[in-house]
Specification:
single chain, 484 residues, alpha/beta, Aldehyde Dehydrogenase, Chain A, domain 1, Aldehyde Dehydrogenase, Chain A, domain 2, 7-stranded mixed β-sheet, 6-stranded mixed β-sheet, 16 helices, binds adenosine-5'-diphosphate
């Protein structure tokens, strides 16, 4: 891209306005290492204005007066508008994150689906009648929380916008979003497109900026009612602390070290393809990346030989080359990954295979050759900590008990896959793995909009996606009516 996309400001009350800082942040295309745009550097004052706009929209504005059906129609409409602009949005997402075009296009399909799904769900959330004493009628009612804050990461800016904003809107909340400073061009464009979809002023407010500045101001704001956060465990602690100080709730999705467990009776070829695919997807920068391959000892040699052969065909390149993966998001992230790999090697891990960086991928881009390690010490960092890059730790296990022990031996608990043609074994093992989402004879679900998703342990708490997400953004009121 030759011309630089100019900063638009902060999006409040359906209008772009300049940030009070007057400053901008340069946006770097990971595929080339070059600046391709700018965003406003939002401040605490901008956050104040955005929260005030959302509060007004919720309590006094047109947004708060809509029926659930009307909200649902707006969401559905937004989904159609995303579809209409899908190619433009995919190109922007690919430039911003470096991901291959086919993946960016798939992300737009998922984004549209979030709005379609929650559009359909908006008027289907209803309470119960509770049997109580004679002379009473008791009902439960779900109400919106009010103003919800959304702090999203850079790995899937478009999908994350849909995943967190759509259910909050479906429930009738007014939202303020702080997207990630590393990649947020699509969320900013979506804020604009929401006007085209018909959303009234103040329902969707967007303040780009730095985490420690705009992000911290939003999460600690005294007039928000809930925080939805996806990001690192370290920042997750800050978010939860900020929420606690205001006595509000939060959902935290903080990543994982997710295992695929392959038994000797697995569908071998499918498991090999899945293990390779689940770590190169989005260059391993996926919370639910399959970053550990746990393989039964009896098939270990054969499995890792097949995995090596498969991995050596994998190539990283620019979005336009549209290969298996793109670069990672930034020089900082690339250096962090390289440091973790050096540490793994110092701890004795050996390289089983490396994918390639395609000829022609710009040298200034942030490429990391996907790498598989074996001879991984179970207690080492590479076996236990999230890399957030295309780096897989392969480890053998002996039997079911050992597989369960190994699968549960990290602080995380987000997703796991169990591969076995013996259904009883797969369930027996799967039920004992402490994760929020379990796949049997498969891994990942291409967005999985309908499937409740979230963590156990250090992976966080609360559930996103599916119908469950709607309840996170709602408060239950119990209505007790006395009659004769
Ligand atoms: P990563 O390390 O993957 O970039 P982060 O947790 O740092 O993940 O970032 C996720 C989101 O949290 C981003 O939008 C970022 O700006 C925001 N963020 C970072 N630091 C803070 C903070 N101190 N308070 C609130 N939000 C923050």
């Amino acid at each position: 891209m030759s011309t630089i996309i100019p900063a638009k400001g902060v999006f409040i009350n359906n209008r772009w306005q300049p940030s009070s800082s007057g400053k901008t942040i340069a946006m770097i295309a990971p595929a080339t290492g070059k600046v391709f745009g700018e965003i406003a550097r939002g401040t605490a004052a901008d956050i104040d204005a955005a929260v005030a706009a959302a509060r007004h929209a919720f309590e006094k504005g047109a947004w708060g007066k809509l029926t659930a059906t009307e909200r649902g129609r707006l969401l559905t409409n937004f989904g159609r508008i995303v579809e209409k602009h899908a190619e433009e949005l995919a190109l922007l997402e690919a430039t911003d994150t470096g991901k291959p075009m086919k993946q960016a296009r798939a992300d737009m399909v998922a984004l549209a689906r979030y709005f379609e799904y929650y559009g359909g769900a908006a008027d289907k959330v209803h309470g119960d009648t509770v049997p109580f004493m004679d002379g009473f009628l008791v009902n439960t009612i779900y109400e919106p929380l009010g103003v919800t804050a959304h702090i999203i990461p850079w790995n899937y800016p478009a999908q994350m916008f849909g995943r967190t904003i759509a259910p909050a809107l479906a429930m009738g909340n007014a939202t303020v979003c702080k997207p990630a400073e590393e990649a947020c061009m699509v969320p900013l464009r979506l804020a604009e497109l929401s006007v085209e979809a018909g959303f009234p002023e103040g329902a969707i407010n967007m303040v780009p900026g730095l985490g420690e500045e705009a992000g911290a101001a939003l999460s600690s704001h005294g007039d928000i009612d809930f925080i939805s956060f996806t990001g690192s465990p370290e920042v997750g602690i800050l978010i939860q602390t900020a929420a606690a100080k205001n006595h509000i709730g939060c959902t935290l999705e903080l990543g994982g070290k997710s295992p695929q467990i392959i038994f000797e009776d697995a569908d071998f070829d499918a498991a090999v393809a899945s293990v390779a695919g689940a770590i190169v997807q989005n260059a391993g920068q996926t919370c639910s990346a399959g970053s550990r391959a746990l393989v039964q000892r009896s098939i270990w040699d054969k499995f890792i030989a097949a995995l090596k052969a498969k991995f050596e065909t994998i190539q990283a390149g620019t979005p336009e080359m549209d290969l298996d993966l793109g670069p990672v998001i930034s020089a900082t992230q690339r250096d962090r990954i390289n440091k973790m790999m050096a540490m793994a090697e110092r701890a004795g891990a050996k390289v089983l295979a490396k994918g390639k960086i395609a000829d022609g991928a710009p040298k200034e881009g942030f490429y990391v050759a996907p790498t598989i390690y074996y001879d991984v010490e179970r207690s080492s960092e590479i076996a236990r900590e999230e890399v957030f890059g295309p780096v897989l730790a392969a480890m053998p296990f002996e039997d079911e008990e050992d597989a369960i022990h190994l699968a549960n031996s990290t602080d995380y608990g987000l997703v796991a896959g169990v591969w076995s043609k013996d259904g009883s074994r797969a369930l027996r093992v799967g039920k004992k793995v402490r994760v929020g989402q379990l796949f049997i004879n498969g891994y990942g679900a291409g967005g999985g909009i309908e499937l409740p998703f979230g963590g156990m342990k250090k992976s966080g708490h609360g559930r996103e996606k599916g119908f469950e997400a709607l309840y996170e953004f709602a408060a239950m009121k119990t209505l007790v009516i006395k009659h004769n």
